[in-house]
Specification:
GO terms for molecular function: abscisic acid binding; protein phosphatase inhibitor activity; signaling receptor activity. The protein folds into three domains: about 150 residues, START domain (Alpha-D-Glucose-1,6-Bisphosphate, Chain A, domain 4), CATH 3.30.530; about 110 residues, START domain (Alpha-D-Glucose-1,6-Bisphosphate, Chain A, domain 4, 2-Layer Sandwich); about 150 residues, no CATH class. The chain is about 20% helix and about 40% strand. The protein contains 13 helices and 21 strands. The strands form five sheets. Strands 1-7-6-5-4-3-2 form a seven-stranded antiparallel β-sheet.
């Protein structure tokens, strides 16, 4: 009889990646991977909910697939996250293939180094069934394709992302231990609201007691961009006097950043002085990916940039597209000119109320319309006034300001181009600036 003739099955996929093993493992081991994967593979997953845990060993996820999928949903648990071997193992614990007759089902991912900037992602599915009959029943539904697609999506994500760092140093005439006592205090959220009443509307503790793992919900005054988000204390190191706070929901993540973290490091200068090093690190997909040109299999960055005769265009967008949003809390834009993007004879024209600048380009850029929500978002912010927004037909908008308000100004005249586009599954509003001569 074969009723209890245990059958073990294994499916395997390997993908060579032109990135370091550490960079690839960083993504696979990231506690935020469930959210990233839903964004990278919107057609594969309906949603992924964290049931238990914080992304480490023991974390339980509830995965739901689009209607009609087999299986439709299941629970899985992270049973191995081995940084030394770069190995992650995820085991189904309820529903899914277990309900279809499998006695055991596990996916694993291991990253093998193949040189300085090359590695191999080995994705594997292992399952056990009690009989050939059950094996024949489940085999049509079990495939390595989803793990292969995940490996490809993650490799593309690594190729296309752009990491930025903003840093500020402030020397303080106070002992490092005294300054760190404030930064590490569980009472800091309450203190910050009192110290900066015009910056924060409120800061609420969602979870925790001010230590590692604490989650805060920050709300800014009406018109702020972003208006609200949640952040988590991921590091509070008393020895190094280091605190790291990572955004986990809303805020710049909803604007397209794939990663955003603030950190504060207190460096001792003398027994009576120290330096506060504040740093913001954020990550966005590269602009070439936004323009539909981010396929790493076909994209040669050096050749592509040489062929794309948009003077300083790549540098302009990559270096400054997000900076307006990320720095507006420190220095609000106050000078806007009317902007229109036109495509004519392979030229992109930026038209202001008193200037015309033609920028030749061998490849036309797509004109991205502003949606009603984007128009309303701009109108709600203090970047522009409602009267300076022409809502048009509800799908396009022009931002403008009178020439007189620009006269006599020594600062740069800033041209603001708002690109509203659909990337992955969500709409993001980005801006980039160009210095107008």
């Amino acid at each position: 009889m074969e009723k209890y003739s245990i059958i073990r099955k294994e499916l395997k996929h390997e993908l060579q990646v032109n990135a370091s093993a550490d960079d690839v493992w960083e993504v696979y081991s990231d506690p935020d991977l469930p959210r990233i994967i839903v964004q990278l593979l919107p057609g594969v997953f309906e949603k992924i909910d964290v049931v238990v845990g914080d992304g480490g060993i023991g974390t339980v996820l509830h995965l739901t697939y689009p209607p009609g999928s087999v299986p439709l949903s299941y629970l899985e648990k992270f049973v191995t996250i081995d940084d030394q071997r770069r190995l992650k193992e995820v085991k189904q614990i309820d529903g899914g293939y277990l309900d279809m007759g499998c006695l055991f089902y596990m996916d694993s991912f291991q990253i093998f180094e193949r040189g300085c900037d090359k590695c191999v992602i080995v994705s594997k599915t292992e399952y056990i069934v009690p009989s050939q009959e059950i094996a024949s029943r489940v085999e049509p539904y079990i495939s390595i394709d989803s793990l292969a697609g995940m490996a490809t999506a993650i490799s593309n994500y690594i190729y296309n992302r752009v990491l930025k760092v903003l840093k500020h140093k402030l020397e303080v005439q106070a002992p490092a231990k005294d300054v760190w006592e404030v930064y590490s205090s569980p009472e800091l959220p309450t203190l910050i609201v009192k110290l900066l009443p015009t910056v924060f509307e409120k800061i609420e503790i969602v979870k925790g007691n001010g230590g590692v793992g604490t989650v805060l919900h920050l709300t800014y005054p009406p018109g702020s961009i972003p208006l609200t988000y949640k952040e988590k204390f991921v590091t509070i190191d008393n020895r190094r006097r280091l605190k790291e706070v990572k955004q986990i929901e809303g805020g710049y993540l909803d604007m397209g950043c794939t990663f955003y973290m603030d950190s504060f490091l207190i460096k001792e200068r003398s027994s009576k002085s120290c330096v506060i090093v504040s740093k913001t690190e954020y990550e966005v997909p590269s602009v070439l990916a936004f323009l539909g040109r981010g396929d790493p299999e076909e994209f040669d960055e050096e050749k592509e940039l040489m062929a794309w005769s948009f003077p300083d265009g790549y540098k302009l967008v990559q270096e400054r597209m997000v900076n307006v949003l990320l720095t507006n809390g420190k220095a609000r834009l106050s000078h806007l000119t009317q902007i229109v993007l036109e495509e004519e004879n392979d030229e992109i024209e930026v038209i202001t109320t008193n200037q015309r600048h033609s920028i030749g380009a061998k490849r036309k850029l797509v004109k991205y319309p502003l949606t009603k929500n984007s128009v309303n978002s701009l109108a709600a912010s203090d970047l522009v006034s409602k009267k300076s927004l022409d809502h048009g037909d509800g799908n396009n908008a022009v931002v403008m300001i009178d020439d007189e308000e620009l006269e006599g100004k020594e600062e740069e005249k800033i041209a603001l181009v708002s690109l509203h586009y659909r990337l992955i599954r969500s709409c993001y509003l980005f801006t980039f600036t160009r210095q107008m001569k």
